[in-house]
Amino acid sequence: MTDPRKKYQEYLWAPFTQMGDLDEEVEPLVIVSGEGSRVTNIDGKEFIDGHGALWLNNVGFGRQEMVDAASEQMQQLSYFPSFAGMANNVALELAERLVDIADRENMSRAFFSSGGSEAVETALKVSRQYWRLKGRDRKYKVIARRQAYHGVTMGALSATGMAMNRQLFEPLVPGFRHIEPPHCYRCPYDVEYPDCGLVCAKELERTIKFEGPDTVAAFIGEPVMGAGGVIVPPDGYWQEIERICRKYDVLLISDEVITGFGRTGDVFGCRHWGVRPDIMVFAKALTSGYLPLGATLTTEDIFEVCLGQHGQGREFRHGTTYSGHPAACATALVNLDITEKEGLVDKARDNGAYMLKRLRELESLPAVGNVNGLGLMARVELTQKDDVPFPPEQLTGLKISRQLMRRGVILRALGDVISLSPPLVITQDEIDTMVDGLGEEIEKLT
Question: Which pTM does this prediction carry?
Answer without folding.
Answer: 0.96
